[in-house]
Amino acid sequence: MSERPEPRGPVLVLVLLVLLALLAVAWGAGYQAPDEPVLGAPAAADVPASPGPPAPVAPAPASPDPVAPSVPPTGSEVPEVPEVPGTPAAPTATLPGGRTGVFDGNRFLVAHYGTAGTGALGVLGETPPERAEAAVRRAARPFWRPGQPVQPVYELIVTVADARPGPDGDYSHDIDRADVQRYLDAARAHGVLLLLDLQPGRSDFLSVAKRWEWALRDPYVGLALDPEWRMGPREVPGRTIGHVRAREVNRVSGWLTGLITRERLPEKLFVLHQFRTDMLPDIARVRDRPGLALVQHVDGFGTRGQKLATFHAVAHPQRFAMGFKLFYDEDVRRMGPAAVHAIRPRVRFVSFQ
Question: Residue 87 domain-assigned?
Fold first, then answer.
């Protein structure tokens, strides 16, 4: 009896079908449709990109101060002081003559400079506050020009630099509050601006300015910073010429703008004294603040040629209104109103010491 052949044909077909099925499963397990994320895996936006080679970064400008500002998680730069949004609201008080801007009407400012009770630091202290108005108006009158009225100013040194440290060790002292109030009363009575001048010694300008907030709340009162008397931790007034960085100036101006906004005050005079470039080496970084009339006041004394050379060496008229100081005793052939008005860039504020 002959053997029947084994049915190999069907078996081979079945084996081939099984192999094809296994291949399809294996290929399907490794495939993922482009628009269907794997369940449980992070979405494409949450997957960190490969670091790759770092992109080139331009060097950051050097900070004017040794300590760089910290950066919050958002990456925005921390301002020196809290910024006041927008322009200050319309003031509820006015300056002399009912105006709201210091230089409105093309005004030319003329000041007597000094401190209370003594003429040693300037002409303002040679007379009591009640009689100071007549003296400063006499000095201001020759500067009048058609279309350019004059505005008298008392520039009162309220924090005076000292050659000795004093009880708090900051080499400066504040004059009596009552003396400042007398000048403020006289200013209000006669339509004169009052400019508080700070010589902080080893303290910083903002700490000192805050002590005079009570007076700066008045619409007639402005602020002047004198870097000549801003000492470092080992410096002594009178032995060295001080300096300040723009960052400290910006802290003060930001604080003052905030005060103007909160109190709805008119524009305030904000003066920076200077006669050497190293007194304010980064002056170009000083910010223009809403509500402040910025003045760079050039203080050099000597001959006319020396004074003009100093003026042109430090002047930044693109950023500031320009000021100029005249010394009764130290100047040689002191410049008169015509010579001052002829200075270019144009001077808009003169003080007599």
Answer: no
Alpha carbon 269 to its chain centroid, in Å, reads: 14
Query: 45 lies in a domain?
Result: no
Q: How far apart are the first and last CA of the chain?
A: 143
pLDDT computed for residue 87 by the predictor: 63
Q: Is residue 66 part of a domain?
A: no
Q: What is the pLDDT of residue 90?
A: 87
> 172-174 and 150-161: which strand pairing?
antiparallel
Residue 29 covered by a domain? no
Do 268 and 260 contact (CB within 8 A), yes or no? Answer: yes
Q: Determine what percent of the chain falls in helix, strand and coil, rounding each to the nearest 5.
A: 35, 20, 45
- Rounded Cα gap, residues 77 and 63, in angstroms: 12
Structural domain of residue 124, as residue ranges?
96-352
| pLDDT at 56 > cutoff 80 | no
Stretch 161-180: mean pLDDT: 97
Long-range contacts of 7-10 (CB under 8 A, 24+ apart): none
Q: Which two tokens stand for residue 187?
A: 């200013």
- How confident is the model at residue 46, as a pLDDT? 29
Residue 335, domain CATH? 3.20.20
Residue of 231, 190, 240, 188 lying closest to 208 (CA atoms)? 231
Is residue 83's pLDDT more than 80?
no
When divided into structural domains, the chain yields a total of 1
